[in-house]
Amino acid sequence: MLPFETTNIFEQLPRFVFKMPRVVPDQESKFQSDELFRRLCRESEVRYTGFRDRPLEERQMRFQNACREGHTEVAFIATGTNLQLVFSPCANGYSEGCDFNKEQGKVHIKSCFIMNGVCVRWRGWLDLERLDGVGCLEYDEERAQIEDTLLREQIERYNQRLRDFEEKQRVFRAQHERHVEAEVEARKKQSELSPDRAGSASN
């Protein structure tokens, strides 16, 4: 335990800021074993959830405009899971994440994101008139490998900072102990000299 009376000790210690990891250590295992992922990885009914208080025609227009801008809101009907999907904007009816040309009257969407610490890909389609369709979640192995590498690097940086912190604490304690020993030695010498001075004064 560090001495309480030392006033400037905390100025000598580094501040720790540990960012919450974006992903869990074993993403694939969690994707395969987690009950929610197991339900969402099966193709099931989905529905556009934006502007539910507006007329159908307006919602259809807003849905298509949002898709062309590269975002939309959908929900899995069976689980009630709502998702904000973000993907590449499509100016001419097609992009890597949004395709109006693949099937008439439908838009096909792919969106990659991190959910509950796991890299996943939403894949599905929605009817442009009914604003419902079919979708599912897939494990995004490529992105998961990238995030795993970033996670390991983050943990290593944190561990290195922790080792540096512990080393500084060790050095500080050693310096403090030497300082205390020097003070004790000085007081001991002073106490040894005091009786001689007292005897000289009495004579």
Automatic annotation (TrEMBL):
Q: Name one Pfam family in it.
A: CBF_beta
In this chain, the stretch annotated as Disordered covers 176-203
**Residue ranges under compositional bias (Basic and acidic residues)?**
176-195
Arranged from A to Z, the UniProt key words for this protein are: Coiled coil, Nucleus
What start-end ranges are recorded for coiled-coil regions in this protein? 148-175
Query: Does the keyword field hold Transmembrane helix?
Result: no
InterPro entries in the cross-refs: CBF_beta, CBF_bsu_sf
Q: Which GO terms describe its cellular component?
A: core-binding factor complex
| Cell compartment(s), UniProt | Nucleus
Location (main, coarse): nucleus
Q: What does this protein do?
A: Regulates the DNA-binding properties of Runt.
For this chain, the family text in UniProt reads:
Belongs to the CBF-beta family.
Protein name, entry field:
Protein big brother
